[in-house]
Design brief:
- The chain is mainly beta and 141 residues long.
- The chain has 1 helix and 9 strands, in the order H-E-E-E-E-E-E-E-E-E.
- The strands form 3 sheets. It has a 5-stranded mixed beta barrel.
């Protein structure tokens, strides 16, 4: 009966480097390279971060189709879940950052300077009013 051992991430990293080299030299083209998945180690999934745009309002806990800003091509839209707060910047295309976890996309951060009430001058407070993220001047507080 085989014994089981738990391997830490540093040891797994060393094993992967060792598999790619023989006697300190890179494996030549005559060898086929294969990925070794050790027992208990899940598949590596890349987490992805993107800048996108959307228009219109976006309620909290709602999904919206957004456009990738710097990814050209036919498939440059994705559905994103907003777990952050309600957004209603109006009809202008608003920049946001999103991230992918597993197979789902999530809102990370809206561009705060594109939210209602923002002004580059004066002192303001970022608040949520009627479920919508917005800026208000401190004189209105």
């Amino acid at each position: 009966m085989a014994e089981g051992f738990l391997l830490g991430p540093n040891l797994l990293s060393q094993i992967r480097r060792t598999i790619d080299r023989v006697d300190g030299e890179p494996i030549g083209s005559g060898f086929r390279r294969t990925q070794v998945i050790l027992e208990g180690e899940g598949p590596r999934s890349a987490k992805v971060f993107r800048i996108c745009t959307f228009t219109g309002s976006w309620a909290i806990n709602a999904t919206k189709t957004v456009n990738f800003k710097y990814v050209p091509g036919a498939t440059n839209t994705v559905n994103v879940l907003n777990q952050y707060c309600g957004l209603n910047p109006g009809t202008v295309a608003t920049d946001i950052s999103i991230a992918k976890e597993g197979t789902s996309w999530f809102l990370v951060q809206p561009n705060l300077t594109q939210q209602p009430g923002y002004s580059a001058s004066g002192t303001q407070v970022l608040t949520i009013q009627n479920g919508i993220l917005r800026w208000i001047g401190t004189t209105a507080c």
